[in-house]
Q: What sequence folds into this?
């Protein structure tokens, strides 16, 4: 019998250049794989067709190799596996847990504003307003009419129905060295409302793809940033609904830049390639992210 070999993964989105925060996450996964005799997978999360670019993907390979990280090939690129996500959506639809939602962003913003005019309206753990629409209760005729009009459609999870089916859920958190809760954490998927599982532009979503891929790739330990801590609630729920195993999670601290803000591509944080061009070495990067010892 095989002993359970740990499987780690680093799963960046090629929508910008990697920065120090990514270096920390990738090096942590690499070190842990080394220390535990485990495997390290690289997954390219490129479902966002409008923001992902091939040159950013190439830059990921270059930057990780420069850091001295080795990963297994072939690399899984999510854009090549849309059929696996469609299949999962079909299964959830067959369970009566998904419904089509046609509203535009503008329409949703208008519905939220109308709710907020009446009083406080709940926000999800990322601070976005919970979906306020009524698409869940559209009649079959209305849905058919929308579909016929050719309007793009998103698929949302009927959270109340999903929770009835799953019952209470927990996940195993092993966030050593971070400010995460550790041990058995109670999942609160309801905090996200009726999340989108298939977007209008692409028949999947971050939540769905990550859960399917972690299971398909046999990932045993998900090491990723603290910003995704509460997303794990949704991931745990989807695992339960789809009969998939749940990895152990280890959410790590987020690096802050000199002004204390979270590092992010969107905030124009200094990219690894820029640091490299300034003469910074991979060993310097390890020191900068607080990983002083090599694996
Ligand atoms: N692709 C996600 C990101 O770049 C990370 C997903 C994950 O680790 O679960 O933020």
A:
């Amino acid at each position: 019998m095989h002993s359970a070999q740990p499987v780690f993964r680093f799963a960046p989105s090629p929508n910008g250049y990697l920065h120090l925060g990514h270096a920390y996450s990738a090096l942590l996964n690499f070190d842990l794989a080394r220390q535990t005799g485990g495997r390290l997978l690289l997954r390219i999360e490129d479902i966002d067709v409008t923001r992902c670019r091939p040159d950013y993907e190439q830059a990921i390979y270059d930057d990780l190799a420069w850091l001295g990280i080795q990963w297994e090939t072939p690399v899984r690129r999510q854009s090549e596996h849309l059929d696996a996500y469609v299949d999962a959506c079909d299964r959830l639809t067959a369970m009566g847990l998904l419904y089509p939602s046609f509203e535009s962003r503008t329409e949703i913003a208008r519905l939220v504003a109308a709710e907020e005019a009446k009083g406080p309206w709940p926000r999800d753990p990322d601070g976005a307003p919970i979906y306020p629409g009524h698409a869940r209760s559209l009649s079959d005729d209305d849905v058919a009419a929308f579909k016929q009009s050719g309007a793009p459609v998103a698929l949302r999870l009927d959270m109340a129905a999903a929770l009835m089916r799953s019952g209470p859920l927990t996940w195993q958190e092993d966030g050593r060295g971070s400010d995460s809760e550790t041990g058995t954490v109670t999942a609160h998927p309801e905090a996200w409302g009726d999340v989108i599982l298939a977007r209008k532009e692409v028949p999947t979503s971050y939540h769905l793809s990550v859960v399917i891929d972690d299971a398909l790739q046999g990932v045993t330990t998900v090491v990723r940033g603290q910003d995704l801590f509460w997303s794990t609630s949704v991931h745990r729920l989807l695992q339960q609904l789809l009969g998939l195993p749940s990895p152990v999670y280890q959410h790590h601290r987020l690096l802050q830049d000199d002004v204390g803000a979270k590092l992010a591509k969107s905030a124009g944080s200094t990219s690894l390639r820029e640091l490299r061009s300034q003469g910074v070495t991979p060993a310097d990067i390890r020191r900068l992210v607080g990983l002083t010892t090599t694996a």
